[in-house]
Amino acid sequence: MMQEAGPEAPSNGTTNQNGVVAGAEGGARDVRAKSATPSSDITAADLVNFQQQQVNISLVSFLIDLFATLLNHFTQQPLEMPVSVAMMTPQVITPQQMQQILQQQVLSPQQLQLLLQQQQALMLQQQQLQDFYKKQQEQLHLQLFQQHGSKQQSKEVSAQQLVFQQQLLQVQQLQQQHLLSLQRQGLLSIQPNQNLPLHSLTQGMIPAELQQLWKEVTGAPVKEENSASNNGHRGLDLTSASPAPPKNPLLNQHPTTNGQYSSHTLKRESSALDDHSHHSHPLYGHGVCKWPGCEAVFEDFQSFLKHLNNEHALDDRSTAQCRVQMQVVQQLELQLAKDKERLQAMMTHLHVKSTEPKPTPQPLNLVSKSVPEASPPLSLPQTPTTPTAPLTPLSQAHSVITPTSLHTVGPIRRRYSDKYNMPISPDIVQNKEFYMNADVRPPFTYASLIRQAILESPEKQLTLNEIYNWFTRMFAYFRRNAATWKNAVRHNLSLHKCFVRVENVKGAVWTVDELEFQKRRPQKISGSPALVKNIQTNLGYGPALSAAFQASMAENNIPLYTTASIGSPTLNSLANAIREEMNGAMDHGNSNGSDSSPGRSPLPAMHHISVKEEPLDPEEHEGPLSLVTTANHSPDFDHHRDYEDDHGNEDML
DNA sequence: GATTTTTTAAACAGAC
DNA sequence: CGTCTGTTTAAAAAAT
Questions:
Q1: Which of A291, A433, A559, A633 is the most exposed place for a label (fewest CB within 10 A)?
Q2: Which residue from A246, A243, A111, A227 is spatially nearest to A161, judged by alpha carbons?
Q3: In the structure, how far is the CA atom of residue A1 from the C1' atom of nucleotide B9, in angstroms?
Q4: What crossing angle do the helices spanning A231-241 and A255-269 adopt, rounded to 10°?
Q5: Which residue places its CA closest to the C1' of nucleotide B10?
């Protein structure tokens, strides 16, 4: 609604963009926390197994990432991959599109309501699983971390390859699962001229291609995954088995029953993939009715049809099952999206780790220069990008299904506000990718966002212009209507006491008075005791230190931290501890106060907010992962970034 | 339903 | 003079 006046073009060229890593944010946001979706009729035991495997993967992944990073850092020779990242981003149905498809076909508002209720129940179960999973993860992390000093370079590389390969396979599996789920429901019919079929979904992700790709990437023959671990092998089995119809978790909660059930179902489903090509009906395969929870055997297709019409007619039970199936699909979709994201982060990490700030190919012409409003690609019917749906902590995770969600693109706002003391950081980090690409208003207040921007900066201080840049960099939404939100940003900076302006030779920077920020609203910590404890812990560290952790977690590519910060407050603390340890281990020198941006550091004396002389600023020097490392020593790189930022802004405004 | 917070809009002043 | 930065007021919207 705001006039996007030209005068908005900021003169960012003048101000040096501090080295905050925009891109490479390989951030490999965590997928694992939401791992094994309670899909289908896999038994509880199976789920646990699967989760354990994922734990293994993530552990290895973490270690690999860590060491590879170190390796890269010291050798300055990032692994090269002769593969374009773009290749690896097949266009799959976005969650939004999925919702549309599903909703348009079957659901009435009442049904949606029912569905929501069921989801809640389901989510309870999920939560239990996740709790279990987290505990295990925590344990293993601890264990592994104790032996982290003894790895050898060669091992790391090969292990990295392994993990990477597994990631590829995982994504592929998810895609197949997803598709098969759709087919199973009959909600998605496979037709040659439709663009949803399997070969389209897996386009660029065909196993053979993956293998080939992997060979190219590694320059070595592909190791059989089962030789190193059973993850890959198991994963493949899961793939084929995954379409097994889900036991309705609401109707049947006896794991033993499920176990018996699934054990032979899995076998039968194993070749479901190529099966429905014979019979047109996706619910019939291998002589078995594939309706979820059914599995009646039939001699011929006709009797199956008869059965289908009789037993699975449009009644309450069937619709309920259908809803559950939708839920499964949703989960898979989410999982898939996250894993894709993770994969891409990995690829980016391996490919352009320390040179390319933009991980996601963001076409510069996406938002064209002079016509911010005129370009209609952003209009409602189809989202221009294919962002993953924002992953939200449990409570809202499935708001995606609400009827309103289809229309929420613009006006509807639901702020997270600052209920909790560490309000948005985990969420914002988790959904980084999403907000970077989706023209969706982030559900955070300006104050929260500004704070986040500042805390993410290496020195917990930003100029106004740098804050602007952070907004535009991190949120597609803020690439438009600059006059409006910039005004709001300035307004917020002035309005809230928690933002402190610090004079500097070169001007002024803004810092966050953490205590004030906490004060802003009566602290109603309604969350778990763990959360409270965590907050206390953080406060104990002092604002500066806590901020440092926040920022480093946000900026670094190490999945564990992101995982932990999202996964559970307890783990967050753990991550902090680990982080601290690592900082100590990695670089000692703590070379006095040599800034990454010598020119504009405010006078230390003026800091009544203790953001300055903290002993262990991770970015201080040789920050383990971020681009800042390079930026510190390479004027060219600085220039490069300046240019990029200018460029970006020109494009946006 | 009242109160508080947040957002949006806009006027204005000072520095550059 | 125009732009950027920063402060302030006002009103509407949203959240509590």
A1: A633
A2: A227
A3: 11
A4: 90
A5: A487
